[in-house]
Amino acid sequence: MTFRFELKQTDGKARLGRLHTAHGIVETPVFMAVGTQATVKGLTPAQLEEAGVQVVLANTYHLALRPGDEVIAELGGLHRFMNWRRPILTDSGGYQVYSLAANLKIDDRAAVFRSHIDGSFLELTPEKAVRIQENLGSDIAMCLDECPPFDTPADYRDIAARRTIHWAQRCKTAHRRLDQPLFAIVQGGTDLGLRIRCAEALTQLDFPGYALGGFSVGETTQQMLTALEPAADALPSNKPRYLMGVGKPLDLLLAVARGIDMFDCVMPTRNGRNACAFTNAGQVKIRNAAHQRDSAPLESDCSCTTCRQFSRAYLHHLFMADEMLGPTLLSVHNLAFYSRVMAEIRRAISEHRFAEFCQDRLARWGGGFL
Amino acid sequence: MTFRFELKQTDGKARLGRLHTAHGIVETPVFMAVGTQATVKGLTPAQLEEAGVQVVLANTYHLALRPGDEVIAELGGLHRFMNWRRPILTDSGGYQVYSLAANLKIDDRAAVFRSHIDGSFLELTPEKAVRIQENLGSDIAMCLDECPPFDTPADYRDIAARRTIHWAQRCKTAHRRLDQPLFAIVQGGTDLGLRIRCAEALTQLDFPGYALGGFSVGETTQQMLTALEPAADALPSNKPRYLMGVGKPLDLLLAVARGIDMFDCVMPTRNGRNACAFTNAGQVKIRNAAHQRDSAPLESDCSCTTCRQFSRAYLHHLFMADEMLGPTLLSVHNLAFYSRVMAEIRRAISEHRFAEFCQDRLARWGGGFL
Fewer beta carbons within 10 angstroms: which end of chain A, N or C? Predict the structure, then answer.
């Protein structure tokens, strides 16, 4: 099975497509659920499938540290380990090294840092990031990149982008698994010229897919959107485009309008755990006393397990009583909400009414989501 | 629908029966899962059904405090509130008043105490305990009792037992719902004479079922077993007998052998949340490093969702990484284990080989469970 991206249709810059992976087909644009430690927090694989999750994203950095990628390989790979039969994408660990690790020292050779778990010294090289992901057996692997914060001085941003290109080349050379495509990551922050140069250099290396990294790292949504369109335009149109770590429902919509195919974000699950549900009428803070006697579901037209089975009053009660089931049920709903939004986006593109759909959702969500 | 207990068969003192309730039939002997706050911690109703749970026990004290029994009544009762379609038994709040409430003052009129949630003053009378349970709409309600610790001085134990009888009478008088049987609770600690006098007095009041309270409150297993047999013998044989708050798998077995039909205990779920799984080979501490690379399930012959889908290595990883899914998956297994034990007990009784079954399980479990 060789990875393949099928671009089925466009509507303006929005793209309808399909990823053919070793674990099945993914309809794009797609939102991927974050399962950092080989589990989407609090949800069983069956609950993820019911919520319409097509792809789970797992974190190279976390899994290499615990339980270890070799342990997972020995146990038959990440799919078997977590009992998830649909596709898995693994990030490269780059982002976590910068956000979680302590005492980071980075040069062209490697990132050297201390584990956030036990403080032990660890080293991540492009070759090692690839080997770990090959051990995990994900359906899509990512190159190791350097992801500086958005307010990094221009000269360092330049160094990080050049290092990202250099590392992408080394990742490609090190990569062996034919059943696993390796995507490159474009850096450059909100510096458009740098982004485009980075995208062009990586395009010349000919990867099966490209990610835009270094967004959602502190810049405003407007800054992101301004940089996003030319950054997406600079990527080859026949390859999938993945905007890492984004975002709110409205962000997804606006990014699809700029030609993005893939997304991941902790927001649906993290907000769910924090008693916050996404609905078409805006975010619902379920701890709010207004919900105490409300027999209605979170969303009356939602067909997720949570909305079919439980009232706002019950969900309110679970959070007030600090019951584990509350975070689980809100995460289920939020992932189902994201799945539904993506399915609606795909349908709108296929029916050539994406611009209209965007207008409608902007009007509905404008106040509640941004 | 009127409640009915059908005694199908006996084998020695062990009894095979059926409870006919407003929400369906319960095969006895039965173990009931504890769902204190209208949720068995971390499990959806679907997961409970898959684990073979026949009855959920909810707590009057907790639910009266939060969200309030009138809120639940307004929302259509406890079954609809928590979306559990099988039977529910509610305890009376007596045990929680003594174990959780602060500044308890108790006399024949009422128990007056402070809420463990916000310290507000509350009062529980027999009439109020009944009204709360009628509001909740459980399939089996319990009389308010007084449950002193096992080392209570004899004179107070006597007072508590007499008050329990007096309150049972008042509960019966106050009770209105015809679809809800009200069970009486026998107290008396390990004082056999007192237990038997209490049982006789309550039997004269003619309740549809009887519970033995005040066990598993600090006495040894041997003390419990010694008192249990005559206490059970003192109850009418045509009514169900419920041993409250017990227990370990071996306790269930030994109590069935003494004529008990119903049980509840937090052990399968609490131990599950604390990384401890029940198996026929003893308890498995899943955090133990021995499980790190173990591709086997918790129990190879267990058909629960956890054992069918996940390895010990994965469960070990979830607990080491503090992931919510670990407690959920171990609770599922432990409840399925308890369901399986009860089903095996019922089969053994029906095939008149319960004594043999007991011997076998005593030999298997003796070291691991007691």
Answer: N
Residue pLDDT, tens place only, B198-231: 999 999 999 999 999 988 888 888 889 889 999 9
* pTM listed for this prediction: 0.97
What six digits make up the tokens of B316? 């070990």
Other Cβ atoms closer than 10 A to B296: 11
Please report, as a single letter, which amino acid is at residue B23: H
CA-nearest residue to B73 within chain A is A293
Is B258 an 8 Å CB contact of chain A?
no
Predicted complex: ipTM over 0.90: yes
Task: Please state, in angstroms and rounded to a whole number, the distance separating the CA atoms of residues B137 and A266.
Answer: 39
| Count of A-B CB contacts under 8 Å | 107
The number of residues making up chain B comes to 370
The residue of chain B nearest to residue A325, with distances taken between CA atoms, is: B42
Q: State yes or no: is A264 an active-site residue.
A: yes
Structure tokens at A163: 């290092």
Task: Show residues of chain B in contact with A96, CB under 8 Å.
Answer: none
Do residues B124 and B97 make contact, with C-beta atoms less than 8 angstroms apart? yes
DSSP state of A292: T
CB atoms within 10 A of CB A143: 31
Q: Is A91 annotated in the active site? A: yes
SS3 assignment, position B187: coil
**A368: pLDDT strictly greater than 70:** no
A85 touches chain B (CB under 8 A): no
Weakest-pLDDT range from A186-195, A291-300, B30-39: A186-195
Contact B323 A45 (CB under 8 A): no
